[in-house]
Amino acid sequence: MQIHTRTTGALETGDNAQAFSAVCLEAAGEKGDVAQNVLFERVSARLKAQVGPDVYASWFGRLKLHSVSKSVVRLTVPTTFLKSWINNRYLDMITGLFQTEDAEILKVEILVRTATRHSAKPGADEQAVVSDQAAVAPIRRSVAQPAGHAVAQAVSAAAAARPATGGMPLFGSPLDSRFTFDTYVEGSSNRVSLAAAKTIAEAGSGAVRFNPLFVHSTVGLGKTHLLQAIANAAVQNPRNLRVVYLTAEYFMWRFATAIRDNDALTLKDSLRNIDLLIIDDMQFLQGKMIQHEFCHLLNMLLDSAKQVVVAADRAPWELESLDPRVRSRLQGGVAIEVEAPDYEMRLEILKRRLDAARQDDPSLEIPAELLSHVARNVTASGRELEGAFNQLIFRRSFEPNLTVERVDELLAHLVGSGEPRRVRIEDIQRIVARHYNVSRQELVSNRRTRVIVKPRQIAMYLSKTLTPRSFPEIGRRFGGRDHTTVLHAVRKIEELISGDTKLSHEIELLKRLINE
User: Fold this and answer.
1) Which of 14, 56, 440, 457 is 20 to 30 A off residue 314, Cα-Cα?
2) Mean pLDDT over all residues of the chain?
3) Residues 458-477: what's their mean pLDDT?
4) Are residues 40 and 67 in the same domain?
């Protein structure tokens, strides 16, 4: 009887100790939250003193603290317009103010709070966010903990919590839950890339498709939306895929921190156990050692039949700053270009943006003729189209009777004001390749057949006559050819034009297509 009593007492003592530990952990978390709030209040006071109360009330009155990690502060605002405005005009100032208060802070990010507004189960989402932050919290608080070990713990914690949280990437750059396949506007310019992306997101572990998939386009055409849509869909896949979404900048920061802490092996081991790696903005991957490590990671994942998706602002063979081995691996997959949206697609983007804005303000109305006019005249990219829409929304608040003429005045900087369009070598290659029914990759390859050589020489000639690029730079854009090869091509086409009326007309047609 005494033994039983002692055992029960010991158990009660253990329970009390566990309860006491839980209370201590909760108190430590509350203390950390208090410290973060104090930091935000101090920075807010400094910002208000610096910009003045009127400007502060206009642009920063709805700014809220989202989270503070060891080196990154995340703030939230209610609209995309506010995010864009603060990022473009005040982000450096805000970052400097945070660094004044805490020298360990390296970066400030602005997020949009409305990202989870349309979720079907907001309570579950909030619980998922809290659970995820709780899993990562011990890592954030351990200041002396190496970066690679921290990532390993994040991977383990997120993998264990995945069924309860309803789908989260293991770690990496934050995802915007608005960027899904449902909100991605499909058109003739992106239909192929969208189909490939959906196939990858719906595939199971080990079912590799188009590996690696390389999506490229100029800025503002939806690459990031597409990649985040893949990640958002893949983490909801019932096969429980292990997904990591990273920007090249985040990848560099993670590896640089792990190397500094002499813990790179732990980070690399963490990345070996994933099913899908998605990397955005590959053109920003810099540094010989970082590229060397990425090459090993890429080889390991591809050789293990793990899916890799990459995006950049140009084709893989044009990423001259990348290690040749990385370029070669990226060229071994499927490269798909996303082109500028056509009129129907631009109009659909504007209509969807208007529908989303009406959820905040049901009384908002923009005449159909204004939307159509903007869609016809702002043609460069989806991002510029969004900027034009934000201008309309902003102006309608105090100019309710906007006319087409007034819209032209407001959007003159986006329309181009009649200035000639800047021509890029990749545009020339794409249009020449399409005209002569060859691929861009064949134009920059080493093939010397007649059906390839002539279009290649014409593209080189047009690159020299329509762009300010030098002979050596043009040669590099055409598969690393010598400048004398480009010079020969230019002279050859000039000679042929003088005696071949048909070719001369073809060149003029290509020039018109390129300049449209």
Assistant:
1) 457
2) 76
3) 88
4) yes
